[in-house]
Amino acid sequence: MGFRMSFLNGSKVNIGWGSSDILTVGDQSYQRFLYLIPSSSSKPKHPGVNSNSSSGSLNVSYKMRITLPTSEVYPGLNPVKNSSNGYLGTKLWISAEGIYDTATGSLCMVGCSRLMSGEKSFSSHSMDCEILVNVYFPPRNSDRRSKIKGSIESMRKNTDPLYFTPMQFSGWAHYHHWITESMWRMNFEMIMSVISNTLAIIFAAFQIFHVRKQRGAGPLVSLLMLVILALGHLIPLVLNLEAMFEQDSERSVLIRGGTWIEMNEVIIRVVTMVAFLLQIRLLMLSWTARCSTGKKKALWTAEKRGLYVCFLVYITGAMIAFFIKSRQSVHQTRRHSWYYKDEIILGSSRPYAGLILDVFLFPQIIFNMLQNSREPALSRFYYIGITVVRLLPHGYDLYRANTYADIEDTYIYANHAADYYSTAWDFIIIVLGLFFAATIHYQQRLGGRCFLPKRFQESVIDEELSVDSEEQLPLKYST
Description:
- There is one protein chain.
- The chain folds into two domains: 3-173, no CATH class; 178-477, no CATH class.
- It contains 13 helices and ten strands.
- It has helices spanning 70-73, 176-213, 223-243, 249-254, 259-292, 296-328, 338-358, 362-371, 380-401, 423-446, 454-457, 460-464, 473-477; strands at 3-8, 14-25, 28-29, 57-69, 89-101, 106-117, 120-121, 127-136, 147-154, 167-172.
- The protein has an eight-stranded antiparallel beta barrel.
- Helix 9 packs antiparallel against helix 10.
């Protein structure tokens, strides 16, 4: 019965969030809060209200933590300004107790709140014990996507400084059979993560063998593409290491006793590290081969110009993504608040980085166009295999959306926080990835500009990067 809350204003725009943890049921404390000693207030006060489900009602108590803009809660109070980010925000800590009706799923509680802004309380009068909390849980046999709905209201008069307008919130109900299903899905997604990273290792090894076998292939590999793939393995390692030191209450409940899940997490880190090291090895081989070739000046010039083109496309896309995200959240907070920095910038950068990783072949396509080569720089197993590894999560996300309970905090494979996942985005990214793989295939057979009109296939850059010595002529025309 613990859940997270999302608060909406009158325009149905998300303005805040919170979490709700159950403390006691009848005279028994919840196992995560064993330090609480049951008091007489936690026991039924009337003979007709028994602390068991057979009576149809239970006496329960909750602890709620809510974060909202101050203007949405207590406009009559002057909040303390958080010096670190300048955000005028309010944290509500509500302790509530009431009756839960097991037949209807309704929960009615009366509680007290303590107001906080940053690290300081508003005043000695910020304790409000006239708060009414109503929560409506969906039936246990309801559809898995049923939501918890509720409201927090003030029982004070409108003229009271501590009065606030009723706040509506919603959340997801996590019943036992859904959690059991989610545990199975988490195990499956961990296995999929291990398989994906293992395949990435195999395909990187194919490319290393290809570079060593064909000496002319190494210098023709885009270094920017290899850097993107290496960062794609490094960033999850850093984020997983950071997550080891964080305690998420909801996820800890889901995986309590999950030794198999913890073992799989270790395996995922190991195979991800191996894939990262192989990508670094491949980057070093290509770098060394390019520095030792006779055409290094021409190749470095093409790499430099390709870098300009890719960065221009990436920065333009990032500006569009941030603009769309900020437009969606324009009613939620001010531009210079901490919410803007965390939700807009960080919340947009991670999925956008995942999109860049999905289209990892883009730098190689631009590089092939600029130096107009038809040499097989990439092994067929490599660019097709890595493309499949990147697109498989999007195909799985389409399947998962119609099959499993929607508990995003437990997503391990195809994590929605690390890429663009939706029905439209999944379809677009799959089509785009296959198109880029087909483009590389034809470039390595027909030339880097094979899909351009004939008048553009003659290289202007080739004239600028003309060979300076007779020793380089065979290298130029050998293709």
